[in-house]
Design goal:
By secondary structure, the chain is α+β, with helices and mostly antiparallel strands. The protein is built from nine helices and eight strands. The protein has a domain of 159 residues: Gyrase A, domain 2 (2-Layer Sandwich). The strands form three sheets. Strands 2-3-8-4 form a four-stranded antiparallel sheet. A two-stranded parallel ribbon has the order 1-5. Strands 6-7 form a two-stranded antiparallel sheet.
């Protein structure tokens, strides 16, 4: 196996496919009204915002998207929390794990990584670290990852099964997964995982998943421009 170790501070989001578009959302909504004249004549740039405003969510379940992502395990596990999509992940039981670990960016948005006094886990807000403290954190995380990787490689060289050897690896190691779900579920995900000034409800996502979610939202906005505009115009509340 390749025994080299690498560090990455960037995450990747690759669009695999879309299914449906804004027109499909409107067509799905019109089924409920038996194509009555009022709905049939209503242009989709009026119908879809109305659906969003009044939280008629089912039509948004008939379209969706699938992405392949590369990020550390602690980001991937956030997707599992939503329980709204289909996920296929790189195996560490049946395949060798690449030695790529997440490293804090040199200036992680001005270094807000310190938990202040009175820190609230349900609504976390952080204080900036000094350059010296931030550098020390990065150095310690890299040291820990290197030691874990050396241990993993040694276990494999002893003939230990991959499913046993993997348990020494930290959540900072990169994984690769595919996630597919409908647009309504994606909107629910985005409402929680993107920091946006126009959100009805304040959210507290970790910086790394906020970056992934924003990349997903950008792609969704290209394919479903009317629906995504309505989502933003209505306070980023999933229908």
């Amino acid at each position: 196996m390749d025994q080299t170790i690498a560090f990455r501070d960037h995450l990747s989001v690759e669009l695999k496919l879309f299914y449906g578009d804004d027109q499909e959302i409107a067509d799905a909504a019109r089924v409920s009204g038996n194509n009555d004249v009022k709905n049939a004549d209503k242009p989709i740039d009026k119908l879809i915002p109305s659906l969003m405003k009044h939280r008629h969510g089912t039509p948004f379940e008939h379209v969706g998207a699938s992405f392949i992502m590369e990020a550390p395990i602690f980001v991937a596990r956030e997707f599992n929390r939503h329980r709204m999509g289909s996920i296929s992940e790189q195996s560490a039981r049946y395949a060798l794990v690449p030695g790529t670990f997440y490293a804090l960016p040199a200036d992680r948005e001005k270094r807000p990584i310190m938990a202040p006094d009175g820190f609230k886990p349900m609504a976390p807000k952080f204080e900036a670290a000094s350059l010296e403290a931030h550098t020390r954190v990065r150095d310690l995380q890299r040291w820990s990852a290197k030691n874990a990787w050396v241990t993993y490689v040694e276990l494999l060289s002893m003939g230990v099964a991959m499913e046993v050897a993997r348990n020494v690896l930290p959540v900072s190691i990169f994984t690769r997964w595919r996630y597919t779900t409908n647009l309504r579920a994606w909107m629910n995900f985005l409402s929680l995982r993107v920091i946006a000034d126009n959100s009805t409800y304040e959210t507290f996502p970790q910086m790394e998943i906020d970056n992934v979610a924003k990349a997903i939202e950008l792609q969704l906005s290209y394919k479903f421009p009317i629906a995504m505009k309505a989502f933003n115009d209505n306070g980023r509340v999933a229908p």
